[in-house]
């Protein structure tokens, strides 16, 4: 090895860089497998029953002014929940909920969505045990109440809204999010989805939302975990939200996520940093993993250890397909459709990571809202959804299929 380095210093630097990249990506991939295959054990124990009833919950829906979208969300809230609030930036008319408009002169450290949530915390009276936060496009499904924990995260399953590539990226992402099954074993859950999260009101008042961030949901849960022995539980209810309606919206959304994630990373203890930052690298540079394989096999024998390098990098490429496979299983796609999604994995990986790569090198400071479509658009692009199905949906039931065991035989109709 030493003679090779002395004779080929430039190539030695290139090979060293390839190995460093590979090892960082390997660490993230092995951790994901550990979470899904080992640390996830016992997570279902937290969803066997609901300790708190509907009357113990206040629902808050966050929006700017998407009236029709919010109306569908409010309609999906089970009737037994009698306290539903909409927190908006402008006056809108929504049946079945009290609408509160955040005053323009309200000032706090939080900005954008965080500012609205903080205003609601300070000014909306709630004598309930939990506040359940929903995004403007979150359709509740399979809701039976909440188990006893400080933070209860409900899983998501984005609906196709017209962009096939964006939907493919969401299937890939939902597959990766199977790692959430292990978060109950971590003191600091690695991220949170604010579109479906119930928080014990006493914890919310103690921690508050009054900080400057563009990823307020994850920021809150990290600060809460740092402040106390936080109990966290996952409920695999698969709330339905909208996949981005265009690739442009998807890329900008991912850019915001990675920007906020990097900015708030200092909230985590140092012991989490190796895991945390290697995951960022894995996300942003996933499309380049196949190139690592090419680099190893394009110049066989040009440097020591490249044969081993090629074997490892090929195994990591396989992991990308595992994420997609987990996604199609989560979506209950028919086995005949699995090859289609697996073959499209490189495309999904590319666009899922493009926004993250953009945010890594050019992070943003301001919250950018992902545009939502009217519920009628969703009904139009889904053959299994008839006009009025979303409007009439009851959040205690499934939106499309009557049983979670049924397969979906259409690529986009889910």
Task: Please describe the structure with a list of short key phrases separated by commas or semicolons.
414 residues; alpha/beta; seven-stranded mixed β-sheet; 45% helix; globular
Strands ordered across the widest β-sheet: 3-2-1-4-6-5-7
What is the approximate shape?
globular
Total count of helical runs of at least 4 residues = 14
Largest sheet: 7 strands, mixed
Rg calc: 22 Å
Order of helices and strands: HHEHEEHEEHEHHEHHHHHHH
Mean pLDDT comes to: 88
Your description of this structure?
- Strand 1 (about 55-60), helix 3 (about 65-75) and strand 2 form a beta-alpha-beta unit.
- The chain has a 7-stranded mixed beta sheet.
- Residues about 5-10 have low confidence and may be disordered.
- The protein has 14 helices and 7 strands.
- The chain has about 425 residues and is of the alpha/beta class.
- The chain has helices at about 1-5, 10-40, 65-75, 110-125, 165-175, 200-205, 215-225, 245-265, 275-285, 290-300, 305-330, 340-345, 345-360, 375-380; strands at about 55-60, 85-90, 100, 130-135, 150-155, 195-200, 230-240.
- It has one domain (about 1-414).
């Amino acid at each position: 090895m030493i003679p090779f380095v002395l004779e080929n210093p430039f190539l030695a630097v290139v090979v060293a860089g390839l190995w460093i990249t590979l090892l960082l990506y390997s660490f993230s991939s092995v951790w994901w497998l550990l979470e899904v295959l080992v640390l996830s054990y016992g997570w279902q124990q937290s969803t066997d029953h609901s300790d708190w009833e509907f009357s113990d919950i206040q629902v808050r829906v966050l929006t700017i002014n998407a009236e029709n979208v919010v109306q569908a969300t409010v309609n999906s809230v089970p009737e037994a929940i009698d306290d539903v609030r909409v927190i908006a930036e402008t006056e809108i008319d929504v049946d079945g909920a009290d609408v509160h408009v955040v005053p323009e002169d309200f000032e706090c450290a939080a900005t954008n969505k965080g500012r609205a949530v903080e205003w609601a915390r300070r000014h909306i009276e709630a004598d309930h045990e939990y506040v359940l936060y929903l995004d403007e496009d979150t359709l509740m499904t399979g809701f039976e109440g909440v188990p006893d924990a400080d933070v209860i995260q409900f899983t998501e399953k984005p609906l196709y809204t017209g962009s096939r590539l964006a939907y493919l990226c969401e299937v890939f992402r939902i597959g990766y999010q199977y790692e959430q099954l292990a978060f109950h074993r971590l003191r600091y859950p690695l991220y949170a989805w604010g579109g479906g999260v119930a928080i014990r009101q006493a914890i919310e008042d103690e921690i508050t939302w009054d900080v400057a961030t563009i990823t307020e949901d994850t920021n809150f849960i990290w600060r809460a975990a740092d402040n106390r022995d936080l109990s966290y539980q996952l409920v695999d209810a698969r709330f339905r939200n909208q996949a981005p309606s265009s690739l442009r919206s998807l890329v900008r959304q991912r850019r915001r996520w990675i920007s906020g994630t990097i900015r708030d990373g200092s909230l985590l203890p140092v012991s989490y940093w190796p895991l945390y930052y290697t995951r960022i690298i894995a996300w942003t540079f996933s499309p380049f993993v196949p190139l690592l394989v090419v680099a190893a096999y394009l110049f066989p024998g040009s440097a020591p250890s490249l044969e081993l390098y090629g074997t490892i990098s090929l195994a990591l490429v396989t992991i990308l397909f595992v994420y997609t496979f987990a996604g199609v299983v989560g979506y209950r796609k028919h086995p005949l459709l699995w090859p289609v999604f697996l073959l499209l994995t490189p495309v999904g990986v590319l666009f899922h990571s493009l926004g993250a790569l953009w945010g890594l090198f050019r992070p943003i400071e301001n919250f950018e809202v992902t545009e939502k479509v009217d519920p009628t658009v969703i009904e139009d692009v889904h053959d299994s959804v008839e006009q009025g199905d979303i409007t009439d949906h009851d959040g205690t039931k499934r939106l499309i299929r009557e049983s979670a065991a049924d397969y979906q035989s259409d690529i986009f109709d889910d």
